[in-house]
Specification:
Among the domains are: 57 residues, no CATH class; 101 residues, no CATH class. The protein has eleven helices and two strands; from the N terminus they run H-H-H-H-H-H-H-H-H-H-E-H-E. By secondary structure, it is mostly helical. The longest helix is centred in the last third of the chain and has 38 residues.
Length: 296
């Protein structure tokens, strides 16, 4: 019993010193250069969006992060192209999007909804292509940009994995997205069907004589609505997951792990620092402890 108590005290002393070491040393690493306030090589989450950085980048007065430009370009079309000095693309951007929206409004007033839908779809495709072009042309000479990998996956699922040289993940994510989308469409179709049946069967002004009763239609309506909602959540979850995957593995491309993974544990004598000793912690003398080292 005395041996166990002594061993516990020995481990507690080592744990106290290990805690101090973790607070002072282990978590002081920064992935951004302290002198690099713009974080060009690596994105920073210190400031999500800055109008000064955005407009300064568009006017070429300062550098700007890819995320800031993406957020700004989503509203101020063509900003990416101005930052990349691709001014010749601006007439194409404004012309294609403006023509699609204008023709869509014209056909909508003419009552030609199908043509209007195609025009609006074309304008949306041009808008998407404008953002994609801006991301592709953003500092092409700098490899391994986590911001690019993230935005690629936002604009086109799986493209971030291609950028990270992990194309083998594309069938996994696309299979999950297609499967979730299939169940979404199927469950929604059945939900709409039983909802219409329930409305007809429960309406006293309609002489309904169908084979499905109102109670049965209500039950299946609720079941397929719940399954449809689950399918929507699954689709969103897989979409977000592939974005997170692209971002995380883009950062980890520079994280080197060797085959030599070892764990060392050995007793040691810990000399407390002045601050720790002045507070009276464990006295002013040396204390036994446990030294743990991990190599990877």
């Amino acid at each position: 019993m005395h041996i166990l108590l002594a061993l516990c005290a020995f481990l507690l002393l080592g744990a106290a010193e290990a805690s101090a070491q973790f607070k002072e040393e282990a978590f002081t690493q920064s992935y951004n250069d302290p002198g690099d306030t713009l974080s060009v090589a690596r994105d920073s989450t210190d400031t999500l969006f800055s109008f000064g950085e955005f407009f300064g980048g568009v006017t070429h007065k300062r550098d700007a992060r890819i995320g800031t430009l993406f957020a700004g370009s989503s509203v101020f079309l063509g900003s990416y192209q101005m930052y990349n000095r691709d001014y010749w693309k601006l007439p194409i951007v404004y012309g294609s999007i403006g023509a699609g929206v204008g023709m869509g409004i014209y056909y909508k007033h003419q009552g030609q909804d199908k043509r209007a839908s195609w025009c609006f779809a074309g304008a949306g495709l041009a808008y998407w292509a404008t953002l994609m072009d801006g991301v592709i042309c953003y500092k092409p000479d700098i490899p391994n940009q986590p911001g690019k990998a993230t935005l690629y996956s936002i604009l086109l699922p799986g493209l971030g994995q291609v950028y990270n040289h992990e194309a083998w993940k594309i069938p996994i994510y696309w299979g999950a997205l297609i499967g979730s989308g299939h169940f979404w469409a199927t469950n929604n179709k059945n939900y709409q069907r039983y909802r219409n049946i329930y409305r007809k069967a429960s309406d006293p002004e309609i002489a309904y004589d169908g084979p499905v009763k109102a109670e049965t239609a209500l039950y299946y309506r609720n079941v397929f609505r719940r399954y449809r909602d689950y399918s929507i959540l699954a689709t969103v979850a897989f979409y977000v997951l592939q974005i997170v995957d692209a971002n995380v593995f883009a950062y980890m491309q520079d994280f080197e792990v060797s085959d030599d993974i070892t764990l060392r544990m050995e007793p040691s004598v810990i000399m407390p620092d002045n601050t720790f000793a002045m507070t009276g912690g464990f006295g002013a003398g040396a204390a036994p402890g446990l030294r743990i080292g991990i190599t990877f």
